[in-house]
C-alpha cells in the first residue's frame, strides 16, 4: 500500500497562493488515480481535484475551477495542488488520496457516496485563508 504525506499548507491572506505537495512512498504513485479532498469544520468532506493515472484526465469541483491546478511528477512520485486566488471558504484540512484499482471518477463518486476513505490517504495539511 502506498504511504502519502502532504505538505505545503499554512496561513495565507485572501487572494494569495499555496502549493500543496503529496509525496508517496512504498509504491509508484503513477500507477494510482490521485485526488485532493478537503474538510472544513462542521462540514462534510468534499473532493477538490483529481487526476488520472496517466495524468491525461483531471477533475475539479466547480468552486475551484480556474483557480486550482492538480498535477503529478512521476519522477518525484508526487502529486501537487497549486492553489491561486484563495478565498476564506477554501479554509479546510486538505487530504491527498490515491486509488490503485478504480478509475478516477468512479472512485471519487464512491468516496463521496459512502463517506469512506477509499484507497490510501494522508494525514492532511491545514490551509487557512484569512479575509
Query: What is the β-strand count?
Result: 11
Give the helix proportion (percent range): under 10%
| Helix-strand sequence | EEEEEEEEEHEE
Give the CA-CA distance, first to last residue.
39 Å
Structure description:
With 131 residues, this protein is mainly beta. It is 8% helix and 47% strand. It is built from one helix and eleven strands. Strands 2, 4, 5, 6, 9, 10 and 11 form a seven-stranded mixed beta sheet that branches. It has a four-stranded antiparallel beta sheet with strand order 1-3-8-7, with no helix packed on it. A hairpin with a 4-residue loop joins strand 7 and strand 8. The mean pLDDT is 96.
Question: TL;DR?
Answer:
By secondary structure, the protein is mainly beta. Helix content is 8%, strand content 47%. It is built from 1 helix and 11 strands, in the order E-E-E-E-E-E-E-E-E-H-E-E.
Explain the layout of strands and helices.
Blueprint: E1 3-7, E2 10-13, E3 18-25, E4 33-39, E5 46-51, E6 58-60, E7 68-73, E8 78-83, E9 92-99, H1 104-114, E10 120-121, E11 125-130
Entry keywords:
about 130 residues, four-stranded antiparallel sheet, single chain, seven-stranded mixed sheet, mainly beta
Amino acid at each position: 500500500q502506498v504511504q502519502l504525506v502532504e505538505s505545503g499548507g499554512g496561513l495565507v491572506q485572501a487572494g494569495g497562493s499555496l502549493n500543496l505537495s503529496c509525496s508517496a512512498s512504498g509504491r509508484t504513485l503513477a500507477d494510482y488515480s490521485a485526488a485532493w479532498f478537503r474538510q472544513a469544520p462542521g462540514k462534510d468532506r468534499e473532493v477538490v481535484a483529481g487526476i488520472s493515472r496517466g495524468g491525461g484526465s483531471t477533475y475539479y469541483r466547480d468552486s475551484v475551477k480556474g483557480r486550482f491546478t492538480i498535477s503529478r511528477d512521476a519522477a518525484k512520485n508526487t502529486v501537487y495542488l497549486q492553489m491561486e486566488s484563495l478565498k476564506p471558504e477554501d479554509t479546510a484540512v486538505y487530504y491527498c488520496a490515491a486509488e490503485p484499482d478504480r478509475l478516477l471518477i468512479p472512485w471519487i463518486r464512491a468516496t463521496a457516496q459512502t463517506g469512506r476513505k477509499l484507497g490510501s490517504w494522508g494525514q492532511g495539511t491545514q490551509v487557512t485563508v484569512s479575509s
